[in-house]
Write a structure and sequence with these properties.
InterPro entries: Aspartic_peptidase_A1, PEPTIDASE_A1, Peptidase_aspartic_dom_sf, TAXi_C, TAXi_N. By secondary structure, this protein is an alpha+beta fold. The chain has a single domain, classed as Cathepsin D, subunit A, domain 1. The protein contains nine helices and 33 strands. The chain binds 2-acetamido-2-deoxy-beta-D-glucopyranose (NAG) (4 copies). One 2-acetamido-2-deoxy-beta-D-glucopyranose binds next to loops. One 2-acetamido-2-deoxy-beta-D-glucopyranose binds next to strand 10.
């Protein structure tokens, strides 16, 4: 009898999971409160092939966003890196968050200052770490056009690429897969002189300048010790067949260290040197992107307001933090819910800490009190699963070995203005190892540390940066 019951239960479970692969309904409200996920879908096979998603509809100003290590990557040598080193990703992520805290904190303890000053010299001038930044786009630079894969970063302004001559006069370039841009063979290239106001403005944008010659020489250091320096220059940028910009300022980096594989960086920050700011005449300083749920899919990076979905919900508390340390977009988190139940987080926990949205930080960082509340509610809903130890900074990890599906509670963020954003089912957990995953959030050390809404939580959301209207928007299903 007991066996028969077990068999019936198993059949029922199989039938249920067949029917609800996307979510489990809360019968009372009819709202989805859990996501049921096929575990295999969270671990793309190393041999999976690229599934190109359509770019944003109704707009030509859109680029494919690729995971640099996925099968869609334009960098074939990077593609080969099929098994990511999670410890390294998480270490770089933590370094980026540390540098954000350093740059944006007003109340530094003596100990913080000490540990910072013991690191590299460059960081004193400027800098943020690039983190584990994984998303790239391909942009055409120069005449004739030279297609280059650039990491995109909402946390810095300067767009740069490695430039020939590398290795002359003691300069060096790190290995990159695509041929290095040669400014001497581009007819549209010109250096920016030291006498230009733009060169003068570099230090206020976190970039050191060196005017010992007549050309404006920039030095941008990142806290992790990587750096780029070279000529501040003007060049033609080709995004798509129709979207060509004649004289954008960028860094022609003849001396670059610490990066790998990629040709440079596309700066999407809020400062005047950034790509959206420089193309504001065309795109009105509006851009949007969608980060794909998995490496084998592409997302999009779209400039201008064409093609933005009608279902985008905006939060009005969207401010630009531009200082000599770095440029960030700030937003106001006001609450979090787990399985449709609001966490009881005291008023003031969020308002005591600035929050930013960042494409270059993977794991969302929360004020310690908010993280503790999230963890407690999440653990309660996950009590059926076997817990395990995970890599730092995680403390809430599960072993799903032997299971075909898992049910995880839906997590939603409330932003100022009553905007509620449901995270995608792939934006809740950080999966690593064989069938293991951790709650993909971490708590900050101090209550007033900057909170960061990271890229894991942004997956598949269409995120709209509408600078002129001072609003940030989110919509579900921006990409696969
Ligand atoms: C390298 O040095 C040579 C001679 O000293 C000079 O002509 C040339 O402009 C230098 N190149 C760069 C990139 O500084
Ligand atoms: C760069 O282009 C110039 C002009 O075409 C050429 O003389 C030079 O050899 C090129 N440098 C490299 C490193 O390819
Ligand atoms: C400043 O630029 C000159 C070449 O113009 C270079 O020799 C020098 O090393 C640079 N200084 C720094 C601190 O980068
Ligand atoms: C917010 O900061 C103030 C001043 O530091 C402090 O008194 C208050 O307890 C903090 N509120 C919360 C909820 O942490």
């Amino acid at each position: 009898m007991k066996n028969l019951l077990n068999i019936i239960t198993i059949i029922l479970c199989v039938l249920l999971s067949w029917e609800y692969t996307d979510g489990v309904e809360n019968r009372a409200s009819g709202e989805i409160s859990f996501h049921r996920i096929q575990i295999s879908s969270l671990f793309p096979s190393p041999s999976s092939s690229c599934v190109l998603s359509p770019r944003a509809s109704n707009t030509k100003s859109s680029l494919h966003v690729m995971h640099r290590h996925g099968p869609c990557s334009s960098l074939s040598s990077e593609k080969a890196t099929t098994s990511p080193d999670h410890d390294e990703i998480l270490r770089l992520d933590q370094a980026r968050v540390k540098s954000i805290h350093w740059k944006l904190s007003k109340k530094l303890t003596a100990r913080d200052r000490l540990s910072q000053s013991q690191s590299t010299v460059l960081q004193a001038r400027s800098g943020i770490t690039l983190g584990s930044g994984s998303y790239i786009v391909t942009v055409g630079i120069g005449t004739p056009k030279h297609d280059l894969s650039l990491l995109f970063d909402t946390g810095s302004d300067l767009t740069w690429t490695q430039c020939q001559p590398c290795g002359k006069n003691g300069t060096s370039c790190y290995p990159q897969e695509e041929p290095i841009f040669n400014s001497s063979s581009s007819s549209s290239y010109s250096n920016v002189p030291c006498s230009s106001p733009l060169c003068d403005s570099l230090p206020s944008q976190g970039v050191y300048r060196n005017c010992s010659g007549s050309n404006c020489f920039y030095v941008a250091g990142y806290v992790d010790g990587s750096s780029t320096s070279g000529f501040l220059a003007k060049e033609k940028f080709t995004l798509t067949n129709t979207d060509v910009f004649d004289k954008l300022n960028f860094g022609c980096g003849v001396n670059n260290q610490g990066f790998k594989g990629i040709a440079g960086l596309l700066g999407l920050g809020p400062g005047t040197l950034s790509f959206p700011s420089q193309t504001a005449m065309t795109y009105n300083n509006i851009f949007s992107y969608c980060l794909p749920s998995s490496k084998e899919y592409t997302g999009h990076l779209t400039f201008g307001s064409g093609g933005i979905s009608n279902s985008v919900k905006y939060t009005p508390s969207f401010t630009l933090l531009v200082n000599s340390g770095g440029s960030f977009y700030s937003l106001d988190i006001v609450g979090i819910s787990v399985a449709n139940k609001d966490l009881n987080i005291p008023l003031g926990v969020f308002s005591n800490a600035t929050a930013i949205i960042d494409s270059g930080t993977t794991i969302t960082r929360l004020p310690p009190v908010a993280y503790a509340a999230l963890r407690t509610a999440f653990k309660e809903k996950m009590s059926n699963y076997k817990t395990t130890l995970g890599p730092p900074p995680f403390d809430t990890c599960y072993d799903f070995t032997g299971l075909r599906t898992m049910s995880i509670p839906k997590i939603s963020f409330s932003f100022d203005g009553g905007t509620v954003v449901d995270l995608d089912s792939k934006g809740v957990m950080y999966m690593y190892g064989m069938s293991k995953g951790c709650l993909g959030f971490a708590g900050n050390t101090y209550n007033n540390n900057v909170a960061v809404f990271g890229s894991l939580q942004q997956k598949t959301l269409e995120v709209v940066y509408d600078v002129p209207s001072g609003r940030l928007g989110f919509a579900p299903n921006g990409c696969r």
